[in-house]
Specification:
Blueprint: E1 5-9, E2 13-19, E3 33-39, H1 41-51, E4 56-63, H2 68-77, E5 80-81, E6 84-86, E7 92-98, E8 103-107, H3 116-129, E9 135-139, H4 150-160, E10 164-168, H5 171-179, E11 184-185, H6 189-196, H7 203-216, E12 220-224, E13 230-234, E14 237-242, H8 254-267, H9 272-286, H10 297-303, E15 308-313
Parallel strand pairs: 1-4, 1-9, 2-7, 4-5, 4-6, 9-10, 10-11, 11-12
Antiparallel strand pairs: 2-3, 7-8, 12-13, 13-14, 14-15
Helix pairs in contact: 1-8, 4-5, 8-9, 9-10
The structure holds adenosine-5'-triphosphate (ATP) and 1-O-phosphono-beta-D-fructofuranose.
């Protein structure tokens, strides 16, 4: 039986992308075109894995009022759907694309609160998934009112069952989750600064922060740095990747693609350099498209050679 991955999204979203060339704050802005996609970090990670042919399951919370866009997406991509429905409607996050100025503005809503009973239902689903899934990716923000310990509890429970857990989140829930020592984390620079409580102005500062996390017992770390690429760490190894200069349509989900590619690299038994290359090629693959879709696997594999890889330490 193939090693299976499950992603958990406590706060999914419908990504409402609107194109507004020369978007101006405080002005009347006219929308050129719009597109709605299922989103939220764990949903995106699952979508990228599925596009690559990797079996994947999803869970978390969906508002009962607007599940159809998610259900049809999961069916189309062959994703096993184990979402728990809660009263209300899943949030719509607005992504304003200003292509002439190469800028994307994210307006992310707080999301649907869930009750202790809902959380207990999710725990039951996760317990069930743990019977035949080896990897769990816990991704994204938590809705307002969620206890800050939610990720820490999930990480601890899954670790007790011997599962590989990847955590990609932000704020206090991420900080507490990191304390529970997931196998891997993928902060972007802002999230790493928030986590360490200090500004990280250069590579040396980022590497020092990464070392702190390794010393605390995190197995693997990927720090994504937008157009500047990413830094990957495992044990004493440090690898920096940089993408080629490409035309970017949307960066939404590029970090989630990095998580998907990294997990797939590990599933394939690649070394850190191989995982870093595949993860960065996944991110690169998403940039030309709006919505959580990868180009065909052969084209992603080919683009691995376009990623500039620098070994910092081995
Ligand atoms: N403008 C860009 N040009 C080239 N590559 C990019 C660009 N933005 C992102 N990338 C690639 O995607 C990776 C992840 O992007 P980023 O650091 O923006 O993640 P993120 O902040 O977690 O994003 P998200 O939360 O939207 O998933 C980067 O490490 C880089 O390889
Ligand atoms: O509000 P969160 O949970 O931090 O982020 C949500 C989100 O911005 O993350 C994905 C891109 O990574 C989008 O699909 C989604 O809208």
């Amino acid at each position: 039986m193939p090693v299976r991955v499950a992603t958990v999204t406590l706060n999914p979203a419908i990504d409402q992308t609107i194109s507004i060339p020369n978007f101006a704050v405080g002005q009347v802005n006219r929308v050129e075109w719009e597109q709605a996609d299922p989103g939220g970090k764990g949903v995106n990670v699952a979508a990228f894995l599925a596009d690559f042919g990797s079996p994947v399951s999803v869970t978390g919370f969906l508002g009962a009022g607007n599940t159809e866009i998610f259900r049809s997406f999961f069916a189309a991509k062959g994703i096993d759907d184990h979402f728990v429905t809660v009263p209300g409607r899943t949030r719509a996050n607005v992504k304003i694309l200003d292509q002439p100025n190469k800028r994307i503005t994210d307006i992310n809503l707080p999301g649907l609160p869930f009750s202790p009973e809902n959380l207990a239902s999710l725990q039951t689903v996760i317990d069930r998934l743990a019977a035949n899934h080896d990897w769990f990716v816990l991704s994204g923000s938590t809705p307002a009112g969620t206890p800050d310990t939610v990720y820490a509890d999930l990480v601890a429970g899954l670790r007790r069952r011997g599962k590989r857990v990847v955590l990609d989140a932000s704020g206090p829930a991420f900080a507490n989750g990191v304390e529970a020592l997931p196998y891997a984390v993928k902060p972007n620079l802002e999230e790493l600064e928030e986590l360490t409580g200090r500004t990280l102005p250069d590579e040396a500062a980022i590497l020092a922060a990464v070392q702190d996390l390794i010393d605390r017992g995190i197995g693997c770390i990927a720090v994504s740095l937008g157009p500047d690429g990413a830094i990957f760490a495992e044990g004493a190894e440090r690898i920096a990747t940089r993408p080629p200069a490409v035309v970017v349509r949307s960066t939404v989900g590029a970090g989630d693609a990095m998580v998907a590619g990294f997990v797939l690299g590990k599933l394939r038994g690649l070394d850190l350099e191989g995982c870093a290359r595949l993860a960065s090629a996944f991110s690169l693959g998403t940039l030309a498209t709006v919505g959580p879709h990868l180009p065909p696997p052969e084209s992603v594999e080919q683009s691995m050679s376009e990623i500039d890889v620098r070994v910092i330490a081995r």
